[in-house]
């Protein structure tokens, strides 16, 4: 085999391994929680549905709060008086209800 061909094959294998081991929130073998030492998270509380969501980013499109929750779902919560959006840190995130 040609040396450049072997190098390309090794590079492809290495890239495949890195894509399996490194993903958002840690790796497949050692997942990390959403909040790190210096990271903040948005807490979206919808009191009409009695639901609480956690996310890294929240967008407001004029009528709805849009975000991806920790399960990767695309969420849309209509703006109302019963919806609260707060920026929280690790203490609030790990606090048990």
Helix content: 10-25%
Please state the structural category. Answer: alpha+beta
Order of strands, main sheet, comes to: 2-1-6
Beta-strand proportion: 25-35%
Could you list the spans in which at least 5 consecutive residues all have pLDDT below 50? 20-27
Q: How far is the first residue's CA from the last residue's CA?
A: 61 Å
Characterize the biggest β-sheet.
3 strands, antiparallel
Count of individual beta strands: 6
Order of helices and strands: HEEEEEEH
Mean pLDDT: 75
Rough outline: elongated
Number of helix segments? 2
- Using only C-alpha atoms, the radius of gyration works out to 20 Å
Give a description of the structure.
Strand 1 and strand 2 form a beta hairpin. The model is unreliable at 20-27 (pLDDT under 50). This protein has helices at 3-21, 90-94; strands at 41-46, 51-55, 59-60, 64-68, 74-78, 83-88. A 3-stranded antiparallel sheet has the order 2-1-6. It is α+β, with helices and mostly antiparallel strands and 97 residues long.
Please give a handful of descriptors for the protein shown.
97 residues; three-stranded antiparallel β-sheet; 2 helices; 6 strands; alpha+beta
In short:
25% of the residues lie in helices and 30% in strands. With 97 residues, it is of the alpha+beta class. 6% of the residues are buried.
Question: What topology does this entry show?
Answer:
Blueprint: H1 3-21, E1 41-46, E2 51-55, E3 59-60, E4 64-68, E5 74-78, E6 83-88, H2 90-94
Antiparallel strand pairs: 1-2, 1-6, 3-4, 4-5
